[in-house]
Amino acid sequence: MTLSAISHREQNQLLAAMPFEDWRYIESHLEWVEMPAHSTLFEAGSSLRHVYFPTTAVISLVSTMMDGATVEVAVVGSEGMVGVDAFMGSSNANNGTTASGTVMAQNTALVSRGGHGYRMSAQSIAHHAKRSEQVMHHLLNYTRTLFLHMSQTSACNRHHSLDQQLARWLLVHLERQSDDELHITQERIASMLGVRREGVTGGALRLQKAGLIRYGRGQMSVLDRVGLQAHSCECHGVIRDAYARLKNDAVLQAKPAQAGPSEAPGLNAVGRSLARV
Predict the structure, then answer these.
(1) In angstroms, how far is CA 141 from the centroid of its own chain?
(2) For the segment 215-252, what is each residue's pLDDT rounded down to a tens digit?
(3) How many CB atoms neighbour CB 169 within 10 A?
(4) pTM of the full predicted structure?
(5) How many whole angstroms separate alpha carbon 201 and alpha carbon 11?
(6) Among 90, 79, 98, which Cα is nearest to 243's?
């Protein structure tokens, strides 16, 4: 791994949360990679060979129906990883593994915003999770938050209006990038929301008339995030707050324990240092 790649560790919240003694083992198994926009990292039902830790890329986790219809179930940016099945697999073929124990991907991972990140073999992340209780702890905490993200998205798609879904979708993606510009077509947004293109067109026009976005061919600019939040449903807040708690928990776990009044000086536990998250 190059020095420039190592310097990007802090740009991924999940990697930055790992205790440094574990990072020393993990970093030798990481590869710095480019993730081009609209590329596919892996498809549902395929053998999961690698997991990914985005730094500047944004990844859509997509579920595909037998008739080809798709819907985005979650979004992953620099807060986490793509491929959580890798360390949660079992030897049961009905639980997402082959007879030989190879883990199968449960969702398709599409790069919605091109960028960079780390790649690690699925075998390596499973090894590190088994080797270190702390690594497994952080991975499971992240996975729990990701599952909440998925379940809230599912509820939103069923119970809220298309305009609310569109506002929630825009906000969730914007929070995982550094600017307010999205290079995306109406067809692709419709595919991610699992709705017809005409519905997205109407919703985008209403948001534009309200002065919240500016939409051109293949590009959408968000002009008023606060106003967009007001047009969204509670689902955006639930998802945002869940990831905020995940980040705060990682910071708290890294703080040194305080000596109690009955403890002898110098015998209090010393916390591990944590890279900035």
Answers:
(1) 13
(2) 988 899 999 999 999 999 999 999 999 999 999 887 76
(3) 25
(4) 0.85
(5) 35
(6) 79
